[in-house]
């Protein structure tokens, strides 16, 4: 018995320190019942300890059925089978608690309230010194970090706090490290204060405070937010300087890729992408969205295919942001079919489209003239209760204006005006402008003017585009006085005319006559006297070409680049419609050619010469054709070589609201008896053979309007 007891005791005691057993001890034989009963334990068992508790809490009698019936039945919990409950370890970043709610910030609450009550540009040093008296109670690093986080994004108070911390005496035992500077830099980034952020970073370098990865990443992203792209590149290159041992991380790579893309540095984007991939970097969704946007703006379809290929290799499935970037890129590259396939793939993958997605698809369908498909997409969106924003609705209205869907646009506009439809935004100035543009395109001046007045009465201030469209619509309807009244009312409301409105008034001058012409010129002279002076000079037969050239140069130099050709088009129309000296249209056309405004009208091939008139007005197109015929007549008279065929292209005019340049030019050809006939293979194209054209040029008299 003694042997068995000692064996049992040996099993429950640790071996002596430093003693190692080289042989595994044999297990003791199981003690018999006699041995256990002979040595009873002095400690009561667990069952003995729980027995008194069971007598007071437990009962042998079952619970009566009546008592069970009185207990409330718990409500069943419904679980969505398509959305399982998230696991404890979620991949989503948890929402950060505010600094003031941190448990360790309780002693700082009085100080936080005092800092909040101070003005934005106040000096925090007196308040901080009163709360942290020296030398007994200096702030700790934890206190400083909590205060900096609390002051975010008040950048002035952040800098004041940082200055106080840096001014603490050395015996206070407080050192401002990189982390505190990084928090201050993030506050400056949120406030978009780039100059202060860069100055603080340079101060870190001068003070010997090391810059870590977060410092560089914060600086680069701050420069990108402030559109200081050159500075972002400068600080990124500083990371690779010999004295820096910091390597970029995922955030830095994505930010710099976006900066290079904004600067249109395509080669640098691809080089950095390859270098980062070689270093083991795995691109994220942001990086792929940047690449897709860059290739889309450049119209590089091969680049978009490269994005797809890289995403498959990395194993990343596109999210909504990448899909939006890819759809916008495909729209800019003119691939509506591929965009449709990508959109269908997105919905098949379970990615829910948002308003930006549908806006991109609507623009693509509008350019491809797939108006019905875009409206069908809108109906599906309404059925799925996807909220729409103003950009999407205005895009659909503009698309309806482009493809001529008047009834559909009116239905959508009425839905936007319905206050009961909460998932559709209320119309804004761009919505009204799009509808006014539709009515202006169909030459319904009454409805356009009525909608314009409704917009003003509803408290929506009209923009410059609204005024321009209404005035142009009234001018085409020959309601010149109404157009002048709208313009004068706009000037009284503070309207500031731009170059496009001046071009619109030029077109109204071309359509007017008599006293109405002087009314329009009087309004135009109030804000563009040089343009009116040029029109007066065109009507004066005594003005020479050199004087006209100088005045035209002054007008064009003062105008934006995109309106210079429309200016010349309207000026030529004015010369033709108002019976100005016969040489003026040709003089204006050749001067505009000297300034490079009509540089791409002539296309010469080996067997065909083509005159492209699609960007010209009716009067300018006639002048360009007459000038071309005069040049060909001189070439034929000199015996120079001519191609086999000639082609004049005016455009297909398939748009429902097209102004009909092709029909107007056909009438001009018929009047001049020119040997051009409509092409059988291409709509809007007029062709002639060399023999027919040369014969016609030879038989035409020198007084002909075509040759002379």
TrEMBL record:
Keywords: Repeat, Transit peptide
Region (Disordered): 1-87
Example of a GO MF term: rRNA primary transcript binding
Alphabetical list of Pfam families matching this protein: PPR_2, PPR_3, PPR_long
Biological process per Gene Ontology, one example term: positive regulation of translation
Domain of life of the source: Eukaryota
Chain ranges passing through the membrane: none
Compositionally biased tracts (Polar residues): 32-46
Basic residues composition-biased segments: 16-27
GO CC annotation: chloroplast stroma
Record bears the keyword NADP: no
Positions annotated as PPR repeat: 177-211, 212-246, 249-283, 284-318, 319-353, 354-388, 389-423, 428-462, 463-497
Domain Smr: 611-694
Entry-linked SMART domains: SMR
Keyword hit for Transit peptide: yes
Family in the record: Belongs to the PPR family. P subfamily.
PANTHER family recorded: OS03G0856100 PROTEIN
Protein name: Smr domain-containing protein
């Amino acid at each position: 018995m003694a042997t068995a007891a000692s064996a049992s005791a040996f099993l429950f005691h640790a071996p002596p320190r430093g003693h190692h057993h080289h042989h595994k001890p044999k297990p003791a034989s199981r003690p018999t019942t006699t041995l256990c009963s002979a040595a009873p334990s002095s400690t009561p068992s667990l069952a003995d300890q729980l027995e008194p508790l069971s007598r007071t809490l437990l009962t042998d009698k079952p619970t009566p059925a009546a008592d069970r019936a009185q207990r409330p039945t718990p409500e069943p919990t419904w679980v969505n089978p398509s959305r399982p409950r998230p696991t404890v370890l979620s991949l989503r970043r948890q929402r950060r608690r505010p600094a003031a709610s941190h448990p360790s910030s309780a002693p700082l609450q009085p100080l936080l309230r005092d800092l909040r009550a101070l003005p934005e540009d106040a000096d925090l040093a007196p308040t901080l010194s009163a709360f942290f008296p020296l030398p007994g109670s200096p702030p700790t690093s934890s206190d400083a970090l909590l205060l900096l986080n609390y002051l975010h994004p008040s950048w002035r108070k952040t800098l004041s706090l940082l200055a106080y911390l840096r001014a603490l005496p050395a015996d206070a035992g407080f050192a401002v490290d990189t982390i505190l500077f990084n928090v201050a830099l993030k506050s400056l980034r949120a406030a978009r204060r780039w100059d202060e952020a860069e100055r603080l970073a340079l101060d870190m370098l001068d003070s010997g405070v090391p810059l870590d990865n977060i410092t560089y990443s914060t600086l680069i992203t701050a420069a990108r937010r402030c559109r200081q792209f050159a500075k972002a590149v400068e600080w990124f290159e500083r990371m690779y300087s010999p004295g820096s041992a910091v390597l970029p991380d995922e955030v830095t790579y994505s930010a710099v890729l976006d900066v290079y893309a904004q600067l249109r540095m395509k080669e640098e984007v691809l080089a950095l992408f390859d270098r980062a991939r070689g270093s083991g970097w795995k691109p994220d969704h942001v990086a792929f969205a940047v690449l897709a946007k860059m290739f889309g703006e450049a119209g590089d379809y091969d680049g978009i295919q490269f994005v797809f290929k890289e995403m498959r290799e990395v194993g990343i499935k596109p999210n909504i942001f990448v899909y939006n970037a890819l759809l916008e890129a495909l729209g800019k590259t003119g691939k509506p079919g591929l965009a449709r396939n990508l959109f269908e793939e997105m919905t098949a993958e379970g990615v829910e489209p948002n308003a930006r997605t549908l806006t991109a698809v609507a623009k693509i369908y509008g350019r491809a003239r797939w108006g019905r498909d875009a409206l069908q997409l809108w109906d599906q969106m309404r059925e799925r209760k996807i909220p729409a924003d103003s950009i999407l609705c205005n895009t659909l209205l503009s698309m309806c204006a482009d493809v001529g869907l008047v009834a559909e646009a009116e239905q959508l506009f009425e839905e936007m005006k319905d206050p009961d439809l909460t998932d559709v935004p209320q119309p804004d100035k761009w919505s009204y402008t799009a509808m006014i543009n539709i009515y202006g395109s169909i030459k319904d001046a009454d409805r356009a003017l009525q909608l314009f007045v409704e917009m003003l009465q509803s408290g929506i201030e009209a923009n410059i585009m609204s005024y321009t469209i209404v005035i142009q619509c009234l001018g085409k309807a020959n309601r010149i006085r109404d157009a002048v009244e709208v313009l004068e009312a706009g000037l009284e409301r503070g309207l500031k005319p731009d170059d496009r409105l001046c071009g619109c008034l030029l077109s109204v001058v071309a359509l007017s006559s008599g006293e109405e012409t002087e009314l329009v010129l009087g309004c135009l002279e109030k804000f563009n006297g040089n343009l009116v002076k040029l029109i007066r000079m065109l009507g004066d037969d005594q003005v020479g070409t050199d004087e006209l050239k100088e005045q035209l140069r002054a007008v064009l130099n003062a105008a934006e680049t995109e309106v210079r050709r429309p200016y010349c088009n309207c000026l030529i129309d004015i010369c033709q419609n108002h019976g100005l000296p016969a040489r003026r249209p040709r003089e204006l056309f050749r001067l505009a050619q000297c300034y490079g405004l009509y540089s791409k009208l002539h296309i010469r091939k080996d067997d065909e010469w083509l005159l492209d008139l699609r960007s010209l007005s009716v009067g300018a197109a006639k002048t360009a054709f007459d000038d071309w015929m005069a040049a060909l007549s001189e070439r034929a008279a000199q015996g120079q070589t001519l191609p086999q065929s000639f082609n004049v292209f005016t455009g297909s005019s398939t748009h429902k609201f097209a102004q009909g340049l092709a029909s107007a030019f056909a009438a001009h050809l018929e009047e001049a008896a020119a040997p051009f006939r409509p092409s059988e293979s291409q709509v809007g194209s007029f062709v002639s053979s060399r023999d027919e054209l040369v014969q016609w040029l030879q038989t035409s008299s020198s007084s002909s309007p075509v040759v002379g």
